[in-house]
Amino acid sequence: MLTRSATSHLLAPTLMPPPLRLAKSESCRIFSIKGRKWAQQTKISSSSSENQTVTVVSSPKSKDEDDYSASEVVKSFYQGINDHDLSFVEKLIAENCVYEDLIYPRPFVGRKAILEFFKKFNDSISKDLQFVIDDISAEDSLAVGVTWHLEWKGKPFPFSKGCSFYRLEVINNKRQIIYGRDSVEPAIKPGDAALVIIQGVAWLLQRFPQLANML
């Protein structure tokens, strides 16, 4: 049995930092430490994968602020897609932006074509399907790398892991996305067979160099 002094010692305050309290709301999640709160505009969630990890990245500024960093622009871009708010997304994309989604044969060129693509995307799904950022780079002022996945009502969506790269330019004193590329997890995974295919193509190019003109 613990004595009174031992019990008091165990219950005494320590120098450990206070726990991170997480409260949910419908539009965003509110984080609080020592009473200080801020909105996490990019959806960050506790993943239901085996390792049960929680990824937290710094929150973007509110939609009314102009001086976005590169990573904040990209996080706000994903938030706009999740909200189906293309009028907001439009402000983050440069007029002559080029967007490559590698499941399509050709890139989307220009803001209008890109917005039409995302309108078609949003029209085909509900807001229950959300982009969730796993990790994002924040060191570069004009280039951002992102890893992400999709979730359906908080649960990981199959074959939805992806990584993206964005390059930005400062246009009229605001950072805008000038180039983007998405690479998405394939539904069919060939494994070692992909190495055999690459080896076979390389052998053909070595034997018949003129075939390189067809690439």
UniProtKB/TrEMBL annotation:
Pfam families hit by this protein: SnoaL_2
Composition skew (Polar residues), residue ranges: 43-60
Residue ranges constituting the SnoaL-like domain according to the UniProt record: 74-169
Region (Disordered): 43-66
InterPro entries, alphabetized: NTF2-like_dom_sf, SnoaL-like
Name of this protein: SnoaL-like domain-containing protein
Organism: Jatropha curcas (Barbados nut)
